[in-house]
Amino acid sequence: MSSLFRRFRATRIAILVALTVFGTMRAASAAEIVVFAAASLKEALDDTARVYENQTGDTVKISYAASSTLAKQIESGAPADIFISADLDWMDYLQQHNLIKPPTRKNLLGNRLVIVAPADSDLKLDIKPGFDLAGALKGGRLAMADPDSVPAGKYGKAALEKLGVWNAVKAAVAPAENVRAALLFVSRREAPLGIVYATDAAADPRVTIAGVFPDDTHPPIIYPAALTADSKHPGAARLLEFLASPAARPIFEKRGFTVLQ
User: Fold this and answer.
1) HSE (CB half, 13 Å, CA atoms) of 160?
2) What tens-digit pLDDT sequence spans the chain (261 residues)?
3) Which residues, in sequence order, are CB contacts of 83 under 8 Å at separation 6+?
4) Which residues are CB-neighbours of 173 under 8 A, at least 6 positions away?
5) Rounded to a whole number, what is the distance in angstroms from the first to the last CA of the chain?
6) 153 and 72 in one domain?
7) HSE-CB for 114 with a 13 A CA cutoff
8) pTM to 2 decimals?
9) Which domain, by its residues, includes 142?
10) Is 191 buried (19+), middle (13-18) or exposed (0-12) by CB count in 10 A?
11) Which of 217, 233, 250 is the last residue before a domain boundary?
12) Are residues 185 and 242 in the same domain?
């Protein structure tokens, strides 16, 4: 056997092995149900996905980020089977662009908006019109998700505007890419106060709730979910139904969410 033939055969085998591995990787990836979900859902959705996987044998892969970021990624062609937003606006956006399957859309969960401080703080805020949030900051920054695009930030800005204190604190806002990043600013003591969801506060022992926003100061906090228009995974519809089922209710409630289904 000539050395040229041996090299040709070795190269051919290497290519076949590479193609086989690549094909296996693609098949494994295709076997996953891919969920794009708001960052605030992490613990609750991780818990729920584990129960679903144990019951069905399906594999669930979840990407967490700001709803705005995820919606834009789906618009740009990122592969996802299910989208769960932290507000109605970004789900509406995808629906208007024909990027979800409207019949599958459902409002899953609700939440509360709170102000958090480091865990050892004894600050208690009476959140009412004209309350002195600027004074409570004592020259520090107010951590919140980007109020121009991220749901938690939009809810927070709406509440502060309704209460008449936005103009007094807007220069002190430290905008974060998502609500969990805003939470970290406070838990790491990089900001004395932050606006997050009640479920975020419950997920981090390094913060404490200094005040709860009245529900009538901002639009209702609603988490809608839907299959994406490009979803073809047979398990995606099953997972979405499971998330809205009585079996998932106690998992979400344990993490502090209000179940809307």
Assistant:
1) 23
2) 444 334 334 434 333 333 333 333 333 344 899 999 999 999 999 999 999 999 999 999 999 999 999 999 999 999 999 999 999 999 999 999 999 999 999 999 999 999 999 999 999 999 999 999 999 999 999 999 999 999 999 999 999 999 999 999 999 999 999 999 999 999 999 999 999 999 999 999 999 999 999 999 999 999 999 999 999 999 999 999 999 999 999 999 999 999 997
3) 35, 36, 37, 70, 71, 74, 91, 94, 100, 225, 226, 228
4) 141, 142, 144, 147
5) 70
6) no
7) 20
8) 0.87
9) 113-217
10) buried
11) 217
12) no
Q: Is residue 56 part of a domain?
A: yes
Contact predicate 144/152, CB 8 Å: yes
Token output for 58: 């399906």
Q: Are 85 and 78 in contact (CB under 8 A)?
A: no
From CA 33, how far away is CA 61, in angstroms rounded?
Answer: 6
CA 25 to chain CA centroid, nearest Å: 27
Sequence-ordered alpha helix ranges (H) in 32-96: 42-56, 67-75, 88-96
